[in-house]
Every structure is written in C-alpha cells, then in structure tokens.
C-alpha cells in the first residue's frame, strides 16, 4: 500500500512518502533505476523503455505480458527522488526562449515616465542567496559567470550595506530599466540582521545608497548621514522579492514566519507588490541538480514550495524556484532560462506598482477615497 505522510520505506524515507510492499516482492526490473509505484490492488513494475510488463496477480503469480497499457502511477521514483508524470508548471527550455527573455528584460522600461528604472529590493535571511541571484543574473548578460555582487559564506552574511546594481544588457550595451537592491540579511532571532524598522525606511526611499546597517543604530532622520527626507517616486522600492533557501525551509526559526507576515502586511500597506524566489533548489533535489529542466517535475521541490508559501504567508503563484551559479565557470542555457524567468516574473509585479501610481490613477484613487 502506498501511503503519503508516513516516514519509512523498509527503513528508508523518501521526501515524506513511504511504500509498504506486499508480502512477496520482486526486484525492480528496469535497467535504468526507474521504479514505478501504484496504489492499485495489482502492483506493476514497468521499465522506462519498451512495452513488456511484469504483473503480480491476486495469487502472487508473476506473468509476462507484451500488451501495452496506459500508465497508472501519478509519480515515480528517480534515484530516490519523486518525479511527477507531468510538470506542475510549463517551461520552454530552449536557446530561443533564453534570447526572448533577454530581449524582454533589456528593453523593459517602467510605464511611469518619471521613473527611469524599477527598483527591486531583495529581502531574506542571511545566506539565502540574494547576492548570488544578482551575480547570476548579471552573469547571463555578461556571457560568463561573474560575481559582481560580493558573495560570501559567513554565518553573519557578507552584505552589510544598501547596494544598488544596474542590470546591464549584453556587453557594451546600456543598462536596462531594472535595478536590483541588495542589503543586509533579515533578522531571524530579533537580535541581529536587518530590522523591520530599517526595511520599511528602505522601501519608502529614505535610506541613502551605501548606508551601512547596524541593529544598534536604526536609521533615523537625525542620525543617518544622507537620510532622504522627501524621497521621490524614483527613490522608492517598486517591488520586493523575498529570497528563501529551499534547503533550510524546515529549519528556519518559527518566529521568522511571523516576521515575514508582519513585514508583508506593512509593505502591502505601502502599495508595493511582493514575490518570492526559492533558491538552492538543486540542494534539495538530486535530479534537479543534474538537470535543472526537471525542476517543475520534482515532487520534492513542489512540496518545498508549499512550505515556503506557508513560511511567507503567500500563494505559491508568487513564488518561483531558481538555481544560482556557484561553483560553475560556464553558463548553462537551462539555468539561464530559469533565472531570466524569475526576473521577468519580478518585472511583471514591479510594473503593477507603476500602473497603480501613474498620475491619472493616483488622482482617480484620491477622488474615490473622498
């Protein structure tokens, strides 16, 4: 019997699912390591290729049939990882798609004329992959892997100040209409890291470029050098992208979820839309690490997405998985497509901000409120 939710599979657990075999079992017959599970009374083990099927009937007799049958299982095991029969999101993994996404991002300009670039703030716990994402995106446009945003492995995080990175087009071209803002990691314990107070002042546009954050010295108009007293629309943050580490979703402190939800409420009150990036997906799924095109066929990653949604207090439709460049020296088309799709996802929500804050829309909103 195939039972979701239990922990053991003959002493081995697979992504929170277990399989209780019948009293007499047969060895997997596939030569490529693909074992099919079904919950039907008749258990079949089908090779990934060919039509020959071995079936165990009610009398535990194994018979051989060359008849081709429609597959019954909803997912399969691939090297210990659950693989869905069909992807839960569709993605075009081609060179043409990468080129199309690059052109879309390069040509992007905010729909609000007074704002030359969309400012997107990346927020997340220490080492969640914020700086790596910025470097990875810029690497795609540079044509080689680079680390423009300083990336470190310190437990306290490498980034300490507010840094804005213009995402430039292909080498030699001008910058795009997108700015990714990197900053100190969020506090997980309420004692260290970026505070709620400082985050909201960044979103409002009061914090100057290059400001070094300190939990002991909150940003203030009287104490912070370069404090922007009257920020214009172009100084403000137009979209917030939360970044959470897929490999740490179940180990983040419980209080972090409360912090996320409280923060999201305050940011929403400012009229700023939010999305999320699920980083390091290659660290939770072996098959995705080998081939990123399987990211939307992985039951493991789908489950982690659900946990990330619960942690952040947002629908999974706002969350996209990403694989950052880390040890690689060369670009990969499929990794590029996943990264650029995440940027395109962000820009769609950034543009909603400009639609909401266009002069004519603001005037209409004011009239309606009156």
From TrEMBL:
Region entry Disordered, spans: 24-73
Q: Where is the composition biased (Polar residues)?
A: 24-54
Signal peptide location:
none
The name of this protein is G domain-containing protein
Q: InterPro entries attached here?
A: P-loop_NTPase (IPR027417)
What species does this protein belong to? Answer: Oreochromis aureus (Israeli tilapia)
Which PANTHER family does the entry link to? Answer: INTERFERON-INDUCED PROTEIN 44, INTERFERON-INDUCED PROTEIN 44-LIKE
SUPFAM superfamilies cross-referenced by the UniProt entry: P-loop containing nucleoside triphosphate hydrolases (SSF52540)
**Gene3D superfamilies from the entry?**
P-loop containing nucleotide triphosphate hydrolases
Q: Which GO terms describe its biological process?
A: immune response
